Amino acid sequence: xxxxxxxxxxxHDQVLGLREQVATLEDAGCDRVWSEHGSGTxxxxxxxxxxxxxxxxxxxxxxxxxxxxxxSLSHLVAVVNDFSARGIGFKSLREGISTTDDAGVGMLTIxxxxxxxxxxxxxxxxxxxxxLRRAAAEGRTGGRRPKLSPEQVQVARRLYQEGDHSVAxxxxxxxxxGRSTIYRxxxxxxxxxxxxAGT
Length: 199
Hints:
Layout: E1 3-9, H1 15-27, E2 32-37, H2 46-54, E3 60-63, H3 73-85, E4 89-92, E5 97-98, H4 105-137, H5 150-162, H6 167-173, H7 179-185
Parallel strand pairs: 1-2, 1-3, 3-4
Antiparallel strand pairs: 4-5
């Protein structure tokens, strides 16, 4: 069995923090420590990948804190569950969590984290569905809210067809929207025989 440490800091100016993590992991008995700089949200963490490739059954991966390992709660749970499936233990020093404890409290804690992550995902999905239903009821089909209301689109078309205003003038009159917004509103609308893009 080997104790394998993993240390990470989020930015390149946290070298001291990284050294402190490495020292803490070594003091905790880690035989080897992988360390790197980089955001926890990034997928490309080569040192973590190297550790995962090195770890063998009965080894224990150790971090100073949970947020050093997972980029999110669901990712953390997935990584620790992968450890468990491979017979690899996990320990977080700050939170005092260990999946190798005899009572199984560590794995129970990770299971609770997994339930919380699933609950959060369900809430997001539910809120998204509610938002889409509300948008559909209001006549919107998703995406960003249109910059012009249907009434403003009709005004833009009428002004353009009258021939007395440029697209820039109309954009200014309708709250300073961009000319591209007006062009989209005027699709299929003609001023006489020609719609001049530069007007």
